Amino acid sequence: MDGVHYNTSRNHLVLLQNGDDFFPSLVGAINDAVSEIYLETYIFFPDEVGRRVIDAMKRAVSRGVQVHVIIDWLGTGPRVCRLLTREFSQSGIQYHIFNSWFRRGFVRLHRKLCVVDRGVAFVGGINILSDWRYDYNRKQMLSSPRQDFAVRVDGMLSMLIYQEAIRLWEQTGKLTLWERFDRYRTFYRRHRHVRTRMVLSSFIVRDNFRNRRTIQKAYLKAMGMARRQILLVTPYFAPGRRFRNALASAASRGVEVILLIGSGEFWVQDSVAQAFYPKLLSSGVKVYEYRKTQLHGKVAVIDDRWATVGSSNCDGLSLFLNHEANIVVRDEEFAGELKRRIETAIMEAEPVGERSFMNRPWYRRFWYGTAFLIYRFVMRVITWGDYN
What we know:
This protein has 14 helices and 18 strands.
């Protein structure tokens, strides 16, 4: 597939599903670069897909393009980071390793974005590795390609994404505390009005400085205004109480709320999500578990008009700790196409019935509650009480 194209308020958007859409578009943009590239990713694995991206960046450097890459130390892995460090250094690719050995605490760079020549940008949930490879056990292959989404942006919005990429690049460089503050102050004064220019599509980030709750607030506002339907897709479901209550409240006032959750990856993570099922199901929320392959998409569609695609899971780490980035689009055609993709995945998933769930053995349901209490305690510790 070549992606589905939409024009929204001075921005040309392309909805990309899975690596078959994403990587040809990404590599093509890198091949066309003439001045600079900024790429950020949680996982950068040099398999057959990763090699295509690396080779394209090397060719760009040979043309005189300034290439900047930030990869997360934990997500990519210490051994692979060492390998990439040697290769990037030898080829002239500038790089930063984010938060190696937890020197900045538990925060991770979980967002996946790329900006080319300030005019083309990519934002979504797709890491740099093959769709057929488990992202947490890269020697093991999936039976079906991982399900994920990204958006290509050509237009005004890409400049805002570029400015955010510059900010993090400078923040992760070797600067003194005063230099970081001074650069941030200059950057903020110069660009503080740029957000008002975007009408139908916007770029939102979560960090631990200015934008601690930006993504959650966007979700809460959209869910609070929902009148007909909420479609929410997330690999891991463990948001705070306000987020869960917003879903239940929408369902109780007659909104059709459909929650598609990835299942089967991590036993404890599944148990935490299942701790929320009784209240969600009793409120009228329809819950589906996706088991066909690894579900990695973090997307939502509300009332056939509001849509988001990004890196933020609906869990404590993404909403309260990690660096994340999402695109929000207010456009019926874009939302309609994303909705059709979500509905296809729902047809492949298993519905969770309230009666069948409550008939599970008491000790299993007891464990779900225990897993959540442990999770909540850990999240409150590492987020300094923000997880709520």
